Amino acid sequence: MNQGERGLGFYLLAGFFCLFVLFLYGPLSTIVILSFQGPNGGLTFPMNGLSTRWFENLFETQMVGDFAGSFQRSMALGLAVMLVTVIFSFMAGLAFRRRFLGSGIVFYLAIASLIVPSILVSLGIGLLFRLLELDTNWYSSGFGAHLSWTLPFGLLIMFAVFNRFSPAYEEAARDLGATPWQTIRHVVIPILLPSLIGVGLFGFTLSYDEFARTLYTAGSFNTLPLEIYGMTTNVTTPVLYALGTVTTGLSFLVIGIALAAFTLIDRRRRRQGSDAGRGV
Fold first, then answer.
1. How many other CB atoms sit within 10 Å of the CB of residue 167?
2. pLDDT of residue 279
3. What single-letter DSSP state applies at residue 237?
4. Which among 72, 112, 175, 275 would be 20 to 30 A from 224, CA to CA?
């Protein structure tokens, strides 16, 4: 289709995409710019000089806010949730390849938490811990609340992946004398590795950014989203923007690492295929 044949639908779609990019990256760009305010700068434009003062302030003792502690808690929680999500999603994907008694009930129970509002899940878990006379903490009740959010997504992704996975690879491995564990380790996991990385990345980002399911389950110590929310009513300096810039940069770094891993896996497979074709 040349430029003269483009209809109204094309320009409407292009306009919608431009608005989407503007609404997505416009606020982020504003936060990044304002985080470099001068030492006497405020929370709004115009800029009052340029400096990295507010980034340095993140690592100093704060009268309001625990940046370092909340960041460490969110990272630890996100990594733990990511690991458990990948392992259990992969195991569930293997299990659901064959029908078993009650598989339908188990499936719907597993994804039911996607339907329930997140704030109600958080409130329910918090009340349950109180009834059991247990303290709510980010590493116990918060961990469970985050898994109720990440596991259903991981399960749905792995179900879709296994639906397209050919059992011929496993049959070939068994014909060559591989045990079930060797088949999973040397055949299934390498083939599904990009999908597993994607599930891990998805689980980490969902946990790292989660607010509603952490609100009543984090206990006395906030995760980073809760800390940022609390700071919006107390902090009156651009240090809040500096924190937003750092966390946004971290998110892009995680995405970059995942993309680099995908690229390395693809190159390795291409090289192995080339070597096999030459009979090396």
1. 10
2. 56
3. S
4. 112
